[in-house]
Structure formats: structure tokens, C-alpha cells
């Protein structure tokens, strides 16, 4: 049975599994191996949600927020073997419910290719006139 819940204090095994998920998604290079990084990410998130199947984490997601004005969904993913089962929908629903309970109603995200249909189910739409941007490994001038 698949369960979805907030994760605040992951075990060593859970941290290693999450590291593997970040690597598999190509969000982090394989050289990133410090499991304590997962603790820092969870502490720095407004909330962090995980999905488990038979005791193993198979999906994750989190919200970044100042806790007052707005929030961003981040790192929403489910391992390939468990996709198309509604798990990501459950993760997103749990995060959005928490944000709404905390009074946060402006919620943004940048979805990867193929993900917009999931987010549209929750009322997300393209933000007209906005351009998603990022900065990666660029030294300050």
C-alpha cells in the first residue's frame, strides 16, 4: 500500500533513497553524496512530502516559502516504476492543503516538460508575461 505523508526526520536509508531520486532526475550530479544535505533541504522547506511503497520512498515533493506571502512547489517527482498511479497528485494535494491551511494562496512552480497536465488539475496556469529564469554555476561579476 502506498502512503503519502510529511517527512521531517528521515532515516539514513530514506536520505540515501532521496539522494538517489535527485540523481536519477539529473537534478544533482552523482558527485553529491552527502546525506546530511537532505536534512538541510527538509529543514529549509516550508513542508516536505514523501510517498512510500513497502517502506521505501518512491516519490517526493516540497514547498519553499517565507510562510507568509507566497510559495513555490519544488522537486515534485515519482520514480518511474510508480508513475501514472496518482502518487504525484497525492503529493501535490498534500502540499497545497498545508499551504492553504497556513494562509498562503499565491503558489507558483516551474514544471518540467510533460508535467503541466498534473498541475492544471489543481488550477495552475501559465503566468502571462512571465519568463522562467535560472542561474546555475555562474560566478558573480
UniProtKB/TrEMBL annotation:
<keyword id="KW-0808">Transferase</keyword>
<dbReference type="InterPro" id="IPR016181">
    <property type="entry name" value="Acyl_CoA_acyltransferase"/>
</dbReference>
<feature type="domain" description="N-acetyltransferase">
    <location>
        <begin position="2"/>
        <end position="141"/>
    </location>
</feature>
<dbReference type="InterPro" id="IPR053144">
    <property type="entry name" value="Acetyltransferase_Butenolide"/>
</dbReference>
<protein>
    <submittedName>
        <fullName>Acyl-coa n-acyltransferase</fullName>
    </submittedName>
</protein>
<keyword id="KW-0012">Acyltransferase</keyword>
<dbReference type="Pfam" id="PF00583">
    <property type="entry name" value="Acetyltransf_1"/>
</dbReference>
<dbReference type="GO" id="GO:0016747">
    <property type="term" value="F:acyltransferase activity, transferring groups other than amino-acyl groups"/>
</dbReference>
<dbReference type="InterPro" id="IPR000182">
    <property type="entry name" value="GNAT_dom"/>
</dbReference>
Amino acid at each position: 500500500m502506498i502512503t503519502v505523508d510529511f517527512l521531517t526526520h528521515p532515516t539514513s536509508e530514506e536520505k540515501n533513497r532521496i539522494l538517489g531520486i535527485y540523481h536519477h532526475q539529473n537534478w544533482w550530479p552523482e558527485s553529491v553524496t552527502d546525506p546530511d544535505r537532505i536534512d538541510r533541504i527538509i529543514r529549509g522547506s516550508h513542508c516536505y512530502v514523501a510517498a512510500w511503497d513497502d517502506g521505501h520512498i518512491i516519490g517526493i515533493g516540497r514547498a519553499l516559502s517565507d510562510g507568509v506571502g507566497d510559495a513555490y512547489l519544488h522537486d515534485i517527482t515519482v520514480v518511474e516504476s510508480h508513475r501514472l498511479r496518482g502518487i504525484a497528485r497525492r503529493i501535490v494535494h498534500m502540499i497545497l492543503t498545508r499551504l492553504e491551511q497556513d494562509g498562503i494562496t499565491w503558489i507558483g512552480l516551474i514544471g518540467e516538460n510533460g508535467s503541466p497536465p498534473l498541475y492544471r488539475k489543481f488550477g495552475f496556469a501559465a503566468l502571462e508575461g512571465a519568463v522562467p529564469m535560472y542561474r546555475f554555476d555562474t560566478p558573480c561579476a
